[in-house]
Design brief:
The chain contains 4 helices and no strands. The protein has 2 domains: about 30 residues; about 40 residues, no CATH class. Helices cover about 75% and strands about 0% of the residues. The protein is mainly alpha-helical.
């Protein structure tokens, strides 16, 4: 266990049961509540969805990540 985490754990264990339950709930809720997307992330999601819908409507070729990555690396190597 990392040093700061170990210290935090030791401090949490001396709390009374009600406080430990409150702390546990707070920590759990911080994980269960999704972080809102930033404006940029939201724009990326919307653009991805738009492209997928367009592809499903019009068809066309698809490429694996390996193919795309190879093409990117090839283009970078030519610079």
């Amino acid at each position: 266990m990392a040093r700061p985490l170990q210290k935090l754990t030791e401090e949490a264990l001396v709390l009374d049961p009600a406080e430990r339950i409150e702390l546990a709930n707070t920590l759990y809720e911080s994980l269960a509540t999704p972080n809102p997307l930033t404006e940029w992330e939201l724009a990326c999601v919307e653009e991805s969805e738009r492209r997928l819908e367009e592809h499903e409507r019009l068809g066309g070729p698809t490429y694996t990540w390996e193919e795309v990555r190879a093409e990117i690396l090839e283009r970078l190597a030519r610079r």
